[in-house]
Amino acid sequence: MDSGDTAFMLISTALVMLMTPGLALFYGGLVRTKNVLATMMQSFICLGVVSILWVVFGYSLAFGPDKGGFIGGFDWAFLRSVGTDPGPYAATIPHLVFSAFQLMFAIITPALITGAFAERMKFSAFFLFTILWTTFVYFPVCHWVWGGGWIGKLGALDFAGGTVIHINSGTAALASALVVGKRRGYRKEPFQPHNLPLTVLGAGLLWFGWFGFNAGSALTAGAVAGVAFFNTQVATGAAAVAWITAEWIKVGKPTTLGAASGAVAGLVAVTPAAGFVGPLAALSIGILAGLFCYGAVLAKEKLGYDDALDVVGIHGIGGLWGALATGLFASTVYNSAGADGLFYGNPKQLLVQAVGALAAIVYSFVVSWILLKVTGALTGLRATAEDEVQGLDLTQHSETSYVL
């Protein structure tokens, strides 16, 4: 047991927790005034819902003793045998601290999906879908990669959640946008962000919290944490600049929303690679993330699906690029526990990364689609036309965000 590592992990856990309220602010600023609180509520309440699931059975399913490479058992249900001694995943911190750190990842992942169906899903449907999706999609995929499951055994690298969190949530977001359908008035009336300063504040909190997200995934306060911390900053800044540069060329002016979106794209893309690559690789990952994700957001308009807050373009595409980039740039120079990538003489790593990403995409899309249909049959997915016109703040929560 190491008190320094434990203190570092407690701070990292708190930083990752802050990301979920940060996401609520980021998303809340992007919607119309009548839907601000409903949108923020969908992120914020995940802090409660997922915490309960995690204690009862979630941690056990995600990280418990492996059952066939697919899921953990119920050995650690109700956190049985998860206490103050070190566990199997981190030798220098209490098992319970590791569980708390991973809980924060589990909380933010379903919250990310909500941007795809913002301004139109009933709260009752969201509540049920979040429980089902976290149980049947997040916990299994997390186990595959980090809990001793088949993707981890295959040799796939995912330092802090490119596959588990971003590909997983981005794919579910695509299924959600397709099943729930377009917002009423889509492409017929303007859907302008009501408060971009709120969004920039949210992006800043996400950026700040992400240092705990990535550096904390080293699980010790050592050299690897330092590499991950530095790479997080470099990739994020590079992606923000790349996005607004592309935007500047495309439409003639750089936007604040573009800078914030680009920053989040960089954060997403560097996540799987943060502790496996060097700073120059992180710079390249960030630049290309800004360009790829901006292109994906533009492509959404041509493809015609209504992903309201660009979860697919930023988290899905950014996470996929990050997973593949790890297979290109990974170097044992920066992390002796990892493997070299294609550019360091190991083309197999890129193939393994692609297999892991593809498996997560297929599983998440199919199961998310089924769970959305089940939710729709039980509660109905969408608010009524009248409720959507009036706004979900008032009709779902009997509140208004601003009193003028």
What can you tell me about this protein's structure?
The protein is built from 15 helices and two strands. The protein has 404 residues and is mostly helical. It has a single domain (3-379), classed as Ammonium transporter AmtB like domains (Ammonium transporter fold, Orthogonal Bundle). It has a two-stranded antiparallel sheet with strand order 1-2. A hairpin with a 3-residue loop joins strand 1 (66-67) and strand 2.
Distance between the termini: 55 Å
Shape: globular
Poorly predicted residue ranges: none
Mean pLDDT: 97
Oligomer: single chain
- Strand percentage, roughly? under 5%
Order of helices and strands: HHHEEHHHHHHHHHHHH
Let me know the number of strands.
2
Structural class: mainly alpha
Please identify which CATH superfamily we are dealing with.
Ammonium transporter AmtB like domains
Q: Evaluate the radius of gyration.
A: 20 Å
Most strands sheet: 2 strands, antiparallel
Number of helices: 15
Number of domains as seen in the coordinates: 1
CATH architecture: Orthogonal Bundle
CATH topology: Ammonium transporter fold
For the largest beta sheet, what order do the strands appear in spatially?
1-2
Helix content: 55-70%
CATH class category = Mainly Alpha
Quick structural gist:
The chain is an all-alpha fold and 404 residues long. The protein contains 15 helices and two strands. A two-stranded antiparallel ribbon has the order 1-2.
List keywords for this structure.
mainly alpha, globular, two-stranded antiparallel sheet, 404 residues, 1% strand, Ammonium transporter fold
